[in-house]
């Protein structure tokens, strides 16, 4: 005799499948956030290093350009 699942069992199985697929997308979102944060931090550190160099060299034009770039980066990422 074949054992058939009841409607309740099928509903539970479907809900568990949806939760599992949601977990994957949440994980993917988290990975994207970590990658973006890493890229942001790297770019920010590069700009800050260049700003320090421009200050050491007393290059006002380069300093102004880099600080504007840093401001845009911060506004773009809501910092």
Question: What is the gist of this entry?
Answer:
By secondary structure, the protein is mainly alpha-helical.
Mean pLDDT: 82
The CATH topology of the domain at 27-79 is given as Virus Scaffolding Protein, Chain A
CATH architecture of the domain at 27-79: Irregular
Q: Helix tally? A: 2
Strand content: under 5%
CATH class of the domain at 27-79: Few Secondary Structures
Which residues sit in consecutive blocks of at least 5 with pLDDT less than 50? none
| Rg calc | 25 Å
Number of strands: 0
Main sheet overview: none
Measured as a percent range, the helix fraction is over 70%
Shape type: rod-shaped
SSE-based structural type:
mainly alpha
Rounded to the nearest angstrom, the distance between the terminal CA atoms is 64 Å
Write the H/E string, N to C. HH
Protein name: IDEAL domain-containing protein
Domain IDEAL: 34-70
InterPro entries: IDEAL_dom, Virus_scaffolding_prot_C
Organism: Bacillus seohaeanensis
């Amino acid at each position: 005799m074949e054992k058939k699942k009841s409607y309740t069992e099928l509903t539970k199985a479907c809900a568990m499948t949806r939760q599992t697929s949601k977990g994957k997308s949440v994980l993917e979102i988290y990975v994207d956030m970590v990658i973006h944060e890493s890229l942001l931090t790297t770019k920010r550190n590069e700009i800050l290093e260049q700003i320090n160099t421009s200050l050491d060299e007393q290059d006002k034009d380069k300093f102004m350009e880099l600080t504007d770039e840093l401001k845009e980066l911060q506004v773009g990422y809501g910092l």
